[in-house]
Amino acid sequence: MAAKNTVDTLTADTWTLLSATATAVATVTVQHRHGGSVLLMGTPTEVAPTDADDGIILDHHDGYVAVSLADLFPGVTAPARLYAKALTNDAKVFISHA
Question: 3-state SS of the chain: helix, strand, coil percent to 5?
Answer without folding.
Answer: 5, 50, 50
